[in-house]
Amino acid sequence: MNARKSASLLILFLTISFSAFGLWYLNQGYGKVSALTYEYSKALYSACLSRNETHLTKVEEMLSQDDINAIPSNERAWIEAIIADARNGQWTTAANQARRMMEDQVQ
Fold it and tell me: What is the pTM (predicted TM-score) of this model?
C-alpha cells in the first residue's frame, strides 16, 4: 500500500513538472530575430489583422523569393507557421504570433 501511494505521488509530481515545463517552454516567445524576420512579422501582422488574403499571398511570395539563407532557418519556420495558421483561417492566432515576435524585439 505504501509503495502504491509513493508511485502515485511520483506520477503526480512528474505530471505537474512536465506540465509546468511545457507551459514555460510554450510561453518563452521568439527572442531576438533578424531585421528581415522582423519586417516579415510586421507585414504578417498587418495582413492577419485585416484578414487580407492578397497581402498574405504577397508576404508568402516575398518569402519564397528570398535567398534561403536570408534569414535563419528557425525564423523562416516561424514565419511559415504564422502563414499556415492564417491560411487555415486562424487569423487571430496568426496575428497574435506576429505581434509577439515584434514585441520580443522591444524587450
Answer: 0.72
